[in-house]
Automatic annotation (TrEMBL):
<keyword id="KW-0813">Transport</keyword>
<comment type="similarity">
    <text>Belongs to the SWEET sugar transporter family.</text>
</comment>
<dbReference type="InterPro" id="IPR047664">
    <property type="entry name" value="SWEET"/>
</dbReference>
<feature type="transmembrane region" description="Helical">
    <location>
        <begin position="165"/>
        <end position="187"/>
    </location>
</feature>
<feature type="transmembrane region" description="Helical">
    <location>
        <begin position="72"/>
        <end position="94"/>
    </location>
</feature>
<dbReference type="InterPro" id="IPR004316">
    <property type="entry name" value="SWEET_rpt"/>
</dbReference>
<keyword id="KW-1133">Transmembrane helix</keyword>
<dbReference type="GO" id="GO:0012505">
    <property type="term" value="C:endomembrane system"/>
</dbReference>
<keyword id="KW-0677">Repeat</keyword>
<dbReference type="GO" id="GO:0005886">
    <property type="term" value="C:plasma membrane"/>
</dbReference>
<keyword id="KW-0472">Membrane</keyword>
<keyword id="KW-0762">Sugar transport</keyword>
<feature type="transmembrane region" description="Helical">
    <location>
        <begin position="135"/>
        <end position="158"/>
    </location>
</feature>
<keyword id="KW-0812">Transmembrane</keyword>
<dbReference type="Pfam" id="PF03083">
    <property type="entry name" value="MtN3_slv"/>
</dbReference>
<comment type="function">
    <text>Mediates both low-affinity uptake and efflux of sugar across the membrane.</text>
</comment>
<feature type="transmembrane region" description="Helical">
    <location>
        <begin position="46"/>
        <end position="66"/>
    </location>
</feature>
Length: 239
């Protein structure tokens, strides 16, 4: 049976939705910990703020007046907005002092910025191509910043020769997510979706390569750490 291009695009788009949703939900354990301890501890709200504005911009991009026939984009990014908003509310509830104020100010700025972009492109820009170029460029920049965020973790892996703080499941899901959305964009060519997700696929592949390269050294480090801890405990008990 021959599968149409549109059918294949719908299929990879649905897979992309599933992968993206799993990435959006990956911090749930962290949020439960914050709620249980009633403190944000040393966790930063910046990743959630970055994803929040990214999803808002993609929702604007997928509007029929900007980029029609992008239902799968607006559905997953609409979910992303709601999920990240819930995380930010938790941060606002359990953070204190300057961190709470700064989080709230950044959140309000992002919301007003996205609202301003939406109003401007829908009312102030009458040429469809100009709308597409403006919002698409903002989305590419925003998504690229999100995808570049793990570079610091990758640098730490190379420096420490340990993948302890770079979970395989997260790297693999990020890779599959980027591949799905790149395929989705290429099947009915969309440059603005292709650029950031193509970059994301390359960076996530880099994470997987690092994981394969440093997995054995990580296990060795963990074994040495457990051995040292056991010897220390034995010495303390004997004393």
């Amino acid at each position: 049976m021959v599968v149409s291009v549109e059918g294949a695009r719908m299929g990879v788009g649905i897979l992309g939705n599933i992968m993206s949703l799993s990435l959006f939900l990956s911090p749930v354990a962290t949020m439960l910990r914050i709620c249980k301890r009633r403190s944000v501890e040393s966790f930063s709200p910046l990743p959630y703020l970055a994803i929040f504005i990214n999803c808002l911009l993609w929702c604007i991009y997928a509007l029929p007046m900007v980029r029609p026939h992008r239902l799968l984009v607006i559905t997953i990014d609409g979910c992303g907005v709601l999920i990240e908003l819930s995380y930010l509310i938790i941060f606002l509830i359990f953070s204190t002092g300057k961190q709470r104020t700064l989080t709230l100010l950044i959140f309000l700025f992002q919301f007003l910025f996205a609202a301003g972009v939406a109003i401007y492109v829908l009312i102030g820009v009458h040429a469809h191509q100009k709308r597409l170029l403006l919002v698409g460029s903002l989305c590419v920049f925003s998504s690229t910043m999100v995808y570049l965020a793990p570079l610091s973790v990758m640098a730490m892996v190379i420096r420490t020769k340990s993948v302890e703080f770079m979970p395989l499941s997260l790297s693999l899901t990020s890779f599959l997510n980027a591949i799905c959305w790149t395929a989705y964009a290429l099947l009915r060519f969309d440059l603005f979706i292709t650029i950031p997700n193509g970059l994301g696929a390359v960076l996530a592949l880099g994470q997987l390569i690092l994981y394969a390269a440093f997995y054995k050294s990580t296990q060795q480090q963990l074994l040495e750490r457990r051995t040292t801890a056991a010897l220390t405990e034995t010495a303390y008990t004997n004393a």
